[in-house]
Predict the 3D structure of the following.
Amino acid sequence: MELIRKARSLSRTRTTSRRLRARRTCLPRQQYSNDFHLVEFPKSGITWLTVLLANMCLRNGGSSHRATFSSVRSYIPDLDATPDTLAHEFASPQVRFYKSHSSFEAEMAHVIYVVRHPLNVMRSYHRYMTGLDRYSDSLEAFCNHPDFGIEAWKRHVHSWFSTHVNFGNRFLHLVRYEDLLSDTTGELRALARNFGWYFEDDAITRAVDLSSRSEMREQEALARQRNPGYALEFVSAAAYEAAPRSVERRIERSCRDECALLGYES
């Protein structure tokens, strides 16, 4: 039985790898000047930011609705899951948001790039993939995987921040997940200030309350309770196991330049 389980896991890993290599985000046929794209390498914290932004915009526009873990895609579609989907247009500010894991796309003019320290990305992504039974090897092996591991993370970062990107024609706002955790309100205000959006103070503070980590965990628990087939865990409260020192050293050496570029000391 264990051999069968490992064989199935390997098959799922190969299928996921092929999809990652072949994937190009399918943008909506009709694009607008008020489209904004939230982009990340997987497991960098983008789901939380989508819920925060949706609740902030709903509140600011006078809506009594709220975005939850289960409903946020009706406001901010995931283009990897539902390609060619037109997003909800918020009333105030009058914008549309899209979520994706895409590497550089020339047609994305306004980008909010969510980044997380690569060591924590690898730990989160590894736990996510093993939890779905799509990967069964160690964290160290995962970090060396060409499609999931640290080189894939570096390629994703370089695609958006290398010199070939014409920042005269597009605008990119970097959000570090760690900053969003430590100063959620401040990061949301900085984002609004950069793009010229006006938000009432109540819209921001209420959105932060509605989208707190504890609220998100409760919402995911409800989704799991009402769907017997649900096997995911996006908002985990469990602490990560300590990474082997060999993994830490590998990431420190390999990602020194990228970490400096993104504002991480190491």
About this structure: The chain has one domain: 2-262.
